[in-house]
Specification:
Elements (H helix, E strand, L loop, with lengths): L10 E2 L7 H9 L8 H13 L8 E2 L2 E4 L6 E11 L8 E10 L4 H12 L2 H8 L4 H13 L1
Parallel strand pairs: 1-4, 2-5, 3-5
Antiparallel strand pairs: 4-5
Length: 144
């Protein structure tokens, strides 16, 4: 399910960002959606209501875009962690989801949570050497 939305050019290894806005901006540069301050604002507004940052060193920011035709997933990984919020621990893995208005977003997020709650798989993803390995690990997990 998740692996069908993954593309090598949208997986960023050794990712660096100063804060959450900077991380989103850099990740959106890899998207087909026009990099927009509005998208970042939407994500940050939702973050204030309910955090995307999970306890296990990962974050799942997401946004629904009315003019989006297809779901996009952009992954950023940093083995040491990126400090997205002053009051949260650094995260090592960020998956940014750009959903069209009509999508199975809840199913994709649920599947992603199952994947990232597998401590061994999450650690393997963080230690990945190249984007192809990230996709292969997720694909293998989903086929089990």
């Amino acid at each position: 399910m998740l692996n069908k939305y993954l593309k090598k050019d949208r997986i960023l290894l050794e990712f660096q960002a100063r804060n959450f806005s900077d991380a989103l901006r850099k990740m959106l540069e890899k998207s087909s959606a026009p990099a927009s301050h509005n998208i970042i604002e939407q994500i940050l507004k939702r973050e204030k209501l309910m955090s995307f940052i999970m306890r296990k060193n990962f974050a799942l920011p997401r946004v629904v875009l009315e003019d989006k035709k297809q779901t996009e997933v952009i992954i950023a990984i940093n083995k040491r962690g990126v400090k997205l919020s002053p009051d949260k621990n650094p995260v090592k893995l960020i998956m940014l989801f750009l959903f069209p208005a009509k999508s199975v977003s809840a199913v994709i997020i649920a599947q992603t949570l199952r994947i990232l709650n597998d401590d061994n798989l999450r650690d393997e993803l963080i230690e990945s050497k190249d984007p192809g390995q990230v996709i292969a690990l997720i694909k293998d997990w989903e086929s089990e």
